[in-house]
TrEMBL record:
It comes from the Eukaryota. Its main location: membrane. Keywords: Antiport, Ion transport, Membrane, Potassium, Potassium transport, Sodium, Sodium transport, Transmembrane, Transmembrane helix, Transport. InterPro entries: Cation/H_exchanger_CPA1 (IPR018422), Cation/H_exchanger_TM (IPR006153), NaH_exchanger (IPR004709). It is a multi-pass membrane protein. This is Sodium/hydrogen exchanger. Residues 29-440 form the Cation/H+ exchanger transmembrane domain. The lineage of its organism: Eukaryota, Viridiplantae, Streptophyta, Embryophyta, Tracheophyta. GO terms for cellular component: plasma membrane. It catalyses: K(+)(in) + H(+)(out) = K(+)(out) + H(+)(in); Na(+)(in) + H(+)(out) = Na(+)(out) + H(+)(in). The chain crosses the membrane at residues 20-41, 53-70, 82-99, 111-135, 216-238, 272-290, 302-321, 341-364, 384-403, 415-435.
């Protein structure tokens, strides 16, 4: 009897392993297909990688539905841990690692205005709209915390479609605003979401509201400092030990593991892993990256970008298949009109919430900008508004975390929220995403005059003293220091005084931070190493 039981268990285990191997093979093949088809459609005015992955996911879901007689649309079923532990970290870290720090920190206050204050405005509008409208629709026993979570879920933007089209050399201001706001927005949305989980919002009063705001700032500041600390620690370790003299593999491994460690430590401490790993990426690119060998610099740059790319394609492919999940749609099949109405309301709240802060905050930002070239034009404001209409990875991950358990749900209200989230993500990514290229070409035509102006503007900027907070320009430190003391004109000196916060940061960075943690111009010297020739650079 016992032998028979062992045999049966072994057969079941073998069958399960075989099914897993088949599922993994199919999914990897689909990932390859997404990359190949995305490349072939590179010049298409309507398509991009995200839309391609969604479309292939939808087609795959239909095929699986037909072959399983409507029982499933998945190759495999995952839970929210897949998104938060494996997919989001490489996406967010690469965003911080590849960020153009010169533009990012030059427009830091505007980016924070859009990314933090703007997200707060959008969060309030969507949450209030959900409370006022969804309760009248009787979609299920949703609590006040669920409605606030909906505000956080749909405040998280996905500007990938727009960034794939914008050229940061032609429109550096617009690119830095869209990119920077997108990352800060995601981090802020997740911080809001995490803060909501820590409070009993059924009996909210002034004290709880004050604690909520205090908790938000605590999470924001603590997560930022943790990310910076992890980046500095990796820089110090690599600078002091200099693994590259023996093995470049070790220094690459330290960078990868320290980045992931910062994210998981933040999650362990109930902080925002997204914000932590983003600032870890910025600090690593400013210090750690310059401490490794030349071959490791090339390796890390492309490795981080590749991991981020694969994670994004994986996520959109899975969302495309999950959009046809029978288990979730079965709950809304009895009231399709209510489901359509719910999705339409969410989409309308996204549009209104986005417009409610982009145009007013752009007006406020323009008041602080001296010259017309620095101001955010109306066409650029429309582009920024449009760039934030798409919803993607973070919205999906937060929705699964709030309304499912291990990827499943048996509550009608929760199932309806999941299907509505998927509908909004699909519609905004497919419809808005396909309209992005034509819209940007209409609003921002790349004229020859515009390109010539941008070339002259960039040339002037490279010689000016409008320095970034964590600058990573191509000029030498000596040239930078000289430009600080020789402003090109009296007008610039009067309109942009030399002794700014950036100036004092650079003095502190050059005199203390970089000698200790390394960085451009302070790379470790080892005889015979790739840094030997540049030790006096």
């Amino acid at each position: 009897m016992e032998e028979d039981l062992v045999v049966r268990v072994g057969v079941v285990s073998s069958t399960s392993d075989h099914a897993s191997v088949v599922s993994i093979n199919l999914f990897v093949a689909l990932l390859c297909a997404c990359i190949v088809i995305g490349h072939l459609l590179e010049e298409n005015r309507w398509m991009n990688e995200s839309i391609t992955a969604l479309a292939i996911g939808l087609c795959t879901g239909v095929v699986i539905l037909l072959t399983t007689n409507g029982k499933s649309s998945h190759i495999f079923v995952s839970n929210e841990d897949l998104f938060f532990i494996y997919l989001l970290p490489p996406i967010i870290f690469n965003a911080g690692f590849q960020v153009k720090k010169k533009q990012f920190f030059r427009n830091f206050m505007t980016i924070m205005l859009f990314g933090a204050v703007g997200t707060l405005i959008s969060f309030v509008i969507i949450s209030l709209g959900a409370i006022g409208l969804f309760r009248k629709m009787n979609i299920g026993p949703l609590e006040i915390g669920d409605f606030l979570a909906i505000g956080a879920i749909f405040s998280a933007t996905d500007s990938v479609c727009t960034l794939q089209i914008l050229n940061q050399d032609e429109t550096p201001l617009l690119y830095s605003l869209v990119f920077g706001e997108g990352v800060v927005n995601d981090a802020t949305s997740v911080v809001f979401f995490n803060a909501i989980q820590n409070f009993d919002l059924e009996h909210i009063d002034a004290g709880i509201a004050a604690k909520f705001i205090g908790n938000f700032f605590y999470l924001f500041v603590s997560s930022t400092f943790l990310g910076a600390f992890a980046g500095l620690l990796s820089a110090y370790i690599i600078k002091k030990l200099y693994f590259g003299r023996h093995s470049t593999d070790r220094e690459v491994a330290i960078m990868v593991l320290m980045a992931y460690f910062s994210y998981m430590l933040a999650e362990l401490l109930d902080l925002s892993g997204i914000l932590t790993v983003f600032f870890c990426g910025i600090v690593m690119s400013h210090y750690t990256w310059h401490n490794v060998t030349e071959s490791s610099r090339i390796t890390t740059k492309h490795a981080f970008a590749t991991m981020s790319f694969i994670a994004e394609v994986f996520l959109f492919l899975y969302v495309g298949m999950d959009a046809l999940d029978i288990e979730k749609w079965r709950f809304v099949s009895s009231s399709p009109g209510k489901s359509v109405c719910l999705s339409s309301i969410l989409l309308a709240l996204v549009l209104v919430g986005r417009a409610a802060f982009v145009f007013p905050l752009s007006f406020l930002s323009n008041l602080t900008r001296k010259t017309p070239n620095e101001k955010i034009t109306f066409n650029q404001q429309v582009t920024i508004w449009w760039a934030g209409l798409m919803r993607g990875a973070v919205s999906i991950a937060l929705a699964y975390k709030q309304f499912t358990s291990s990827g499943h749900t048996q509550m009608p209200g929760n199932a309806m929220m999941i299907t509505s989230t998927i509908t909004v993500v699909l519609f905004s990514t497919m419809v808005f995403g396909m309209m992005t290229k034509p819209l940007i070409r209409l609003l921002l035509p790349p004229t020859g005059k515009h390109l010539a102006h941008m070339a002259s503007d960039l040339s002037a900027t490279s010689d000016s003293f409008l320095l970034p907070l964590l600058g990573n320009g191509q000029g030498s430190e000596i040239e930078t220091a000289q430009s600080l003391h020789r402003p090109p004109s009296l007008r610039m000196l009067l309109s942009k005084p030399t002794h700014t916060v950036h100036h004092y940061w650079r003095k502190f960075d050059d005199s203390f931070m970089r000698p200790m943690f390394g960085g451009r111009g302070f790379t470790p010297f080892v005889p015979g190493s790739p840094t030997e020739t540049s030790r006096h650079f």
